[in-house]
Amino acid sequence: MSGVLIGFAIIGAVVAGGYVVGRAGILGPHAGYVVSRLAFFVASPCLMFGVLAGADVHVLFSSLLVASAVAALAAGAVFALVALLVWRRGVAPAVVGSLASSYVNAGNIGIPVSFYVLGDAAYSAPVILLQLLVLAPVALTILDITTSGRASLARILAQPLRNPILIASALGVVVAVSGIRLPDAVLEPVTLIGGAAIPLVLLGFGMSLHGQRVLERGSSRRDVVLATGLKLVFMPSVAWVAGVVLGLGPEQLYAAVVLAALPSAQNVFNYARRYERGEVLARDTVLLTSIGALPVLLLVSLLLAP
Fold first, then answer.
1. Residue 12's pLDDT band (boundaries 50, 70, 90)?
2. Structural domain range at position 137
3. Which of 47, 58, 83, 208 gives the lowest tally of CB atoms within 10 Å of its CB?
């Protein structure tokens, strides 16, 4: 239980610091935009390369990955269907909402929660792999096409080659699978820069909260409520069902549900800001799930902890 509390306390402190920085205006009016781009194009690629390059291949491609994939795809699909077919939302906002419903905070809270609650930080690696090599490429490709107004087979195939996070993640998996041992002179600078990714993303998120009200009128409240419910209730439930069907042992089943119950990742807001679509939806869902995930994780630990 203490691991969950520690992880959320750390995140809350940094987000609060970002809010103070934004409120004080000490970095100027365009600071949030610059911080988000620095995290997206520089720090996050370094972080994900380091995490995936050092991951255990057997853990990366385990049944836990399948359970996590089923839960994430189910949650994202439900939001997309409701947004597109019932509420008649545009494609880009529907994609952002689907990510908010299914893209978990497997990095800055998933890693500490995996370590403190599950006993092994490597549990978060399969989810990171799924999100950065499957969910993110598909979502970012759609966002790129819908916001640029150009769609062609060549552009779709070239999209991963233009995204630094996807390139770095793919290279990290190649290193992990091949067993290559990188020299410290190569790995340490990457690790050092990657260490700035989580603080930058959290600070940028905190800065974005200044002057904003959660669930304010005209801010797609029902989209936020749906995404929050899917993330905190539907997705962990699907993960539990998938885990039981796949025959996961008590420890892996517990891990699958805990990881599915993590809040929406700040990267969803980072992506939304990058493409200037669904920013309020992403911001409010990340904030509400970050608050609501704590009691959900405590309940999961109480019911399923081996």
1. confident
2. 2-304
3. 58
